[in-house]
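We give its fold:
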Amino acid sequence: MVGRSVVAAVQSDADDQALSRWAEQFAREVDHRLDVPPADQQRYIVLLQQALEGDTIADLPGQSFVLVDRSPQVQAAMVLVRTQAGGWHWLGATAVSTGKTGTFEHFLTPLGAFAHTLDNPDFRAEGTLNKNHIRGYGLRGRRVFDFGWQVAERGWGGGGTSKMRLQMHATDPRVLEPRLGRVASEGCIRIPAKLNVFLDVHGVLDADYEAAVANGEKLWILKARRQTIPWPGRKMVLVDTQAAERSVWSPLPTAQGATPSRTPPTQRPAEPLSLSA
């Protein structure tokens, strides 16, 4: 028993060191970052656990998650890791844009836990301009993470629900990426290009993809040179904290479009968080 305890302690120390390195790597590689206060981090972990209540959390393997808060007052994506020992660890957060209602074929981004599987294969952006001279998926080669057809609330007409294709992807670097932090999409999750690359190159949501490769499949979507995170996952989770006002740590982009410097989070009490229906 003592021997097992020593092994567990050594493994825990190794995990802590690795997680610290990955948090530092996130800070180096990803922009549009948001400095979420520790108290809010803990509240988001509770929301993530509640969204995963359909799973037996204790039986889940160590893995990474992308958690998105669609609240118009937040508009943020967080990357978290749950180790095999059951601890939750925060790697970082960035500004995003989710569905903006009021326009035809614009949906309210759906809530829930969505699996990233080979049933809905990812693809890569072609980088072409649409009729509005916008690269909707971002520059050529950016990965489009596909979560399949999902039922979502229509944001036009008389409301109701319809199916929409739920994707997480980069966006036009010149026109739309500087506006991240506002609701703006047709229902998908627009993320910074550098977060797109981080998720892609490090296989943050590629547990199923990596398992297929280990079984001998050849998947063109995976880059040959990649540094996979030790805890690849397969779930993107959408919540809505219904924040009453803008969080200090998630300010709106400036009028010029650039993401402003982050105000220290201690200047205002954290907003109470709750699950949306």
Remarks:
- The longest strand covers residues 143-154.
- The chain has four helices and ten strands.
- The CA atoms of residues 99 and 187 lie 4 Å apart.
- The two ends are 46 Å apart (CA to CA).
